[in-house]
Structure to design on (370 residues):
């Protein structure tokens, strides 16, 4: 949040843009100043966005195969998902794909949020890469509904990773929730003159009175502010999301970890805020506490994993719905699971046993090594 003098300075700069600044630079400067002012006004008016319960997973070359197997099963057992992406701006060039955020909406009160770091994927010949690819195969299939704030076409640039194809993206039921929210708001809040409102009624909430151009799309920040009455921090929009956000990826110092935590929170809150909007508009059912257990304990050396395939009767909360035929998913067999598990343990043992240092002093009297 800005100090008052900083806020006043921004407003003064917006009103007094030098006449020598013209064309595109003038337009870009005006847009940047308005965004900063709007960010401050929302932060001063509403409390900070509070997410619902979730568990986050980083997907990169460090992700264990058993974690991916568990996420594949959770994906197979779920029908509703939220997807978002982050890219890095390149000067005078196309944006560089960096992150894919996916929220798996489980039938329990907790959901999974995955951050796929496409700049830190394993080699394509490794089992880990094939399992990540299998996850997307399970996701982009009929019977899966994916909500996205915008068009699904923003995934097109991510096909270069080899995790999925353009044809696969079209297999799922992709819902442009940004357009749907705009239709919802215009119907719920038509323009009202002062004479049409009662004395105790709030000011007109139509798009024009809120300062939103009726021909423009809604930003996620405005939707969260005006519908959920919370402030969604968007100050990290233009950030380097390709640096590796997983703290286990490389060795980072305290400042680097803190910065990556902020970027992670920004990326995750995009999905979680859409999720709360979907609940508010009653487009998805509010999950309740359930006896269905999807969380398995995944530890470094002692791993217990139980398959969690949920029947359609357990997922459905509406008993009046007609029964549907259970969908078949290509899950790994017990033998394949065992082979992947043994391979993971073997690789970990090799790292522990063969990471040795060879120190030889005084190799030659002419060269002193200390």
């Amino acid at each position: 949040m800005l100090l008052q003098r900083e806020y006043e300075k921004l407003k003064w700069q917006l009103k007094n843009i030098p006449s020598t600044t013209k064309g595109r630079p003038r337009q870009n400067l005006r847009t940047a100043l308005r965004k900063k002012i709007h960010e401050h006004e929302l932060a001063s008016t509403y409390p900070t966005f509070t997410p619902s319960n979730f568990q986050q997973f980083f997907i990169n070359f460090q992700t264990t195969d058993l974690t991916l197997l568990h996420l594949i099963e959770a994906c197979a057992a779920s029908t509703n998902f939220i997807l978002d992406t982050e890219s890095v701006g390149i000067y005078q060039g196309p944006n560089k794909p960096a992150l894919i955020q996916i929220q798996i909406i489980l039938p329990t009160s907790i959901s999974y949020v995955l951050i796929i770091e496409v700049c830190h994927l394993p080699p394509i010949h490794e089992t880990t890469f094939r399992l990540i690819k299998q996850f997307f195969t399970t996701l982009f299939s009929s019977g899966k509904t994916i909500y996205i704030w915008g068009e699904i076409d923003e995934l097109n640039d991510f096909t270069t990773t080899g995790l999925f194809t353009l044809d696969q993206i079209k297999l799922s039921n992709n819902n442009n929730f940004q357009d749907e929210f705009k239709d919802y708001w215009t119907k719920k809040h038509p323009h009202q003159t002062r004479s049409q409102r009662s004395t105790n009624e709030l000011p007109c909430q139509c798009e024009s009175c809120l300062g939103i151009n009726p021909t423009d799309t809604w930003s996620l920040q405005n939707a969260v502010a005006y519908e959920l009455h919370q402030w969604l921090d968007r100050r990290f929009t233009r950030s380097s999301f390709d640096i590796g956000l997983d703290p286990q990826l490389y060795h980072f110092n305290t400042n680097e970890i803190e910065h990556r935590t902020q970027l992670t929170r920004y990326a995750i809150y995009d999905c979680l805020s859409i999720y709360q909007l979907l609940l508010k508009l009653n487009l998805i059912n509010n999950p309740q506490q359930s006896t269905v257990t999807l969380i398995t304990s995944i530890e470094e050396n002692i791993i217990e994993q139980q398959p969690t395939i949920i029947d359609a009767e357990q997922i459905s909360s509406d008993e009046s719905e007609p029964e549907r035929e259970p969908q078949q998913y290509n899950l790994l067999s017990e033998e394949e699971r065992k082979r992947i598990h043994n391979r993971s343990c073997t690789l970990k043992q090799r790292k522990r046993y063969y990471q040795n240092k060879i120190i030889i002093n005084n190799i030659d009297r002419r060269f002193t090594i200390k």
Summary: Residues 79 and 144 are 5 Å apart (CA to CA). The two ends are 53 Å apart (CA to CA).
